[in-house]
Amino acid sequence: MSRPFDPFLYLVTDRALAGPRGVAETVRLALDGGVTLVQLREKALAHEPFVEEARRLREICHARGVPLIVNDDLAVAREAGADGVHLGQSDASVAQARETLGPDAIIGLSVESVEQAQAAAQLEIDYMAASPVFATPTKTDTALPLGLEGVRAIRRLTDKPLVAIGGINHANALEVLQAGADGLAVISAIMAAPDPRQAAREFHRLRSVH
Ligand SMILES: Cc1ncc(COP(=O)(O)OP(=O)(O)O)c(N)n1
Ligand SMILES: Cc1nc(C(=O)O)sc1CCOP(=O)(O)O
Ligand SMILES: [Mg+2]
């Protein structure tokens, strides 16, 4: 059984979009605005700086009772004492992640189709990410967008926490939740916002209207 986590407002980091404000400061502001889960996503950092950044973010997140997930890299997640890992369909296997990180780690898996969501039912994961719900310039090597209908279809297949990712912004977030997602995973709408605290607050407000 994994440690407890709240998937409602899941911030995935992006160093380029954070700009001169930096990842750590952007995460700090976003946590103040109500982010409930953070994923450190680094595609270009070498091992040691990746571990250092993960340790730094873990401290910032844990000070606010929020878990830190590492994208892709099991060794970084383990060395940094992160709370879990997010895996895509082409990453390490869920079994390998479970073996490396232990029974209480939070393991998330991207699902890009109904078939992948069905297959994921057999796996020891803690949440699924419907990916992508909408097309996004932040990541272009994605599968075809699932749309809201895809989120509804995946929702019907699983009782696990379901987050949606890809092109989520303040204008479409409510309909993503109404389609059955338990959480909103966002990069640009918070990382690139002029005021990440306020951007997070606006998403967080949907919790009471949803
Ligand atoms: C919450 C969440 N959902 C989906 C992804 C994408 O994972 P993946 O397909 O492995 O792609 P990369 O992020 O590794 O480029 C994610 N990171 N987080
Ligand atoms: C990291 C990532 N994964 C995706 C997937 O579909 O698997 S979409 C994506 C980027 C999401 O960024 P934004 O919130 O700026 O659209
Ligand atoms: Mg990946």
Automatic annotation (TrEMBL):
Assigned EC number: 2.5.1.3
Gene3D superfamilies according to UniProt: Aldolase class I (3.20.20.70)
Necessary cofactors: Mg(2+)
Binding site for Mg(2+): 72, 91
Domain Thiamine phosphate synthase/TenI: from-to ranges: 9-190
A Pfam entry, by short name: TMP-TENI
Residues annotated for 4-amino-2-methyl-5-(diphosphooxymethyl)pyrimidine binding in this entry: 39-43, 71, 110, 139
Binding site for 2-[(2R,5Z)-2-carboxy-4-methylthiazol-5(2H)-ylidene]ethyl phosphate: 136-138, 167, 187-188
Alphabetical list of InterPro entries matching this protein: Aldolase_TIM (IPR013785), ThiamineP_synth_sf (IPR036206), ThiamineP_synth_TenI (IPR022998), TMP_synthase (IPR034291)
Cofactor: how and how many bound: Binds 1 Mg(2+) ion per subunit.
Keyword Transit peptide: no
Keywords, sorted A to Z: Magnesium, Metal-binding, Thiamine biosynthesis, Transferase
One GO CC term, this protein: cytoplasm
Domain of life assignment: Bacteria
EC class name: transferase
GO BP annotations listed: thiamine biosynthetic process; thiamine diphosphate biosynthetic process
Reactions the enzyme catalyzes: 4-methyl-5-(2-phosphooxyethyl)-thiazole + 4-amino-2-methyl-5-(diphosphooxymethyl)pyrimidine + H(+) = thiamine phosphate + diphosphate; 2-[(2R,5Z)-2-carboxy-4-methylthiazol-5(2H)-ylidene]ethyl phosphate + 4-amino-2-methyl-5-(diphosphooxymethyl)pyrimidine + 2 H(+) = thiamine phosphate + CO2 + diphosphate; 2-(2-carboxy-4-methylthiazol-5-yl)ethyl phosphate + 4-amino-2-methyl-5-(diphosphooxymethyl)pyrimidine + 2 H(+) = thiamine phosphate + CO2 + diphosphate
Pathway, per record: Cofactor biosynthesis; thiamine diphosphate biosynthesis; thiamine phosphate from 4-amino-2-methyl-5-diphosphomethylpyrimidine and 4-methyl-5-(2-phosphoethyl)-thiazole: step 1/1
GO molecular function, one term: thiamine-phosphate diphosphorylase activity
Function: Condenses 4-methyl-5-(beta-hydroxyethyl)thiazole monophosphate (THZ-P) and 2-methyl-4-amino-5-hydroxymethyl pyrimidine pyrophosphate (HMP-PP) to form thiamine monophosphate (TMP).
NCBIfam families in the record: thiE
Family as reported in the entry's similarity comment: Belongs to the thiamine-phosphate synthase family.
Protein name: Thiamine-phosphate synthase
Species for this entry: Anaerobaca lacustris
This protein's encoding gene: thiE
